[in-house]
Amino acid sequence: MNRIERHDASAAIALADELGALYAAAYAGTPQADDPFYSANRFTERLNGYIKAPGFRLVTARAGAGNALIGYAFGYVLPPGAKWWNGLLDATPEGFTTETGSRTFALNELHVRADHRGSGVASAMHAKLMEADGHERATVLVRPENPALNLYEHWGYRPIGRLKPYPDSPEYLALVLPLAG
Question: pTM of this prediction?
């Protein structure tokens, strides 16, 4: 049986090495493995920044007698003036990128260990991460060729445009999921 738990920023700091190891394993053997943007060091830099953001939260999945980490998902609430939408390559409706500090939850990372994919772990973590906090919507960036795009669309996310968040990053699809709030 899998154990799904929600954590705050201080717990995430304590779990950083474990999260980094699963991150590195997720990209091992993929075309991204040799891309510096997907390196463990860049992951750690980004994680350290995300942890400081208001409304940061982490969900972990553990399994087995050894309580091994088999998945994680984390994100934060976009503050007013958030840089999240910087690099948006397509036009959006007026006010779409305006953030209030409670409007949008940004999903930064979601990974499941290869031997547990397809077992519902990702769905359970996503549901726990999105538990009602009064947000209008959630957003995530996904590479167009990433098979996870189908899963996000199954959960109700819809593409709103292309986005390149960093000069050395790939181009992503920006997806948005309406939430009950």
Answer: 0.91
